[in-house]
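re the bet — no i am not wrong, look at it urself. input seq straight from the record:
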Amino acid sequence: MSIYISSYTSKIFLEILCILPLSRKKHRGLNSNKNMQLFSKISQKLFNIKTKKLFFILIGLIVLNTLFIISYYFFVQKKERLWIAQGNGTFQSCSTDGNCINYGSKKYPITSMAVYNNKLWIGLFDGSIQSCDANGNCIDYGNKGGYIHSMAVYNNKLWIGSDILQSCDVNGSCISHGHKKYNIVSMAIYNNKLFIGEDEQGPAGMQSNALQLCDINGNCIDYGNFDSNLGGIISMVVFDNKLWIAQSDCTLHSCDANGNCINHGRKCNSIYSMAVYDNKLWTGGNFVFQSCNKNSNCTKYNYKGNCINSDRTTLKDNQIIHSMAVYNNKLWIGLFGGSLQSCDANGNCIDHGNKGNTIDLMAVW
């Protein structure tokens, strides 16, 4: 019965809605005013139902969008700060205006940093590693066997490098993957592989280096061939879908996924750090602050204080770039004397004051 009534009602509604002009001919017994009144009631009821649904859907979407924005601001954007580690063991977090909170000094200098499992992890000169929260409170996981030169996150593990390669879990428990050729001073993730750059200072100034590619089990093979006379593999970044490598004498190389490497020559006197910003490769070190395109054509900039004296023989200590990071759409640089600066894509920099000691490392978290 209910199906019949529903079907009959739908039929009447369609007649009213679609062929109302013909209704007078087909239903002469019905008063046209009554037809119009019936049509008005039905359409008004349908309109009210649809309008209410649309109204509540719209309100729901607005509420969800507002909650998302608030959550993003408080739990993601608000937390993100620039963290700096200094030569005396001090570490600080800085806001976009360059004002920093000092969390005090560690017993030993901080030699590496990485963001892992929503914590800031630090490696220390004595070989210990720690995880720190957003308030600078740290948990020590003990000594891992030697000076922690480098850190990287790969395959959901924290990889740390001394002269031993190790992978650590969120509890600070580490597995050793054995001694490598030399000290692991740099790490990078490229083509879903872990790359480690090595450096060793031998007797009488002799230097050795190696670049190795490692799988998730810590098995490593040599990758490319680099002249030891040009220094260790001091810094690596991914740029233009290639792995870019800087040796300590400032020679730049780019390598593809098959291990084919191009030597782009010496671009400066020495280099400590690299970063990718504004679709360019930026390098910093002694006597240099420059950006390079994918063809390794580089433009040099004078940052705050003009780093190079006219005779090019002496250099202000405060003008040696030790670290770089991209934060709040700016390139931030940390200097030997403790100065922290933020720079735009044209190499124009703002000095945010001296933070007390050499800024060796940076991380955004």
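see?? Residues 32-77 form the longest helix (46 residues). told u. also Residues 332 and 342 are 4 Å apart (CA to CA). so pay up
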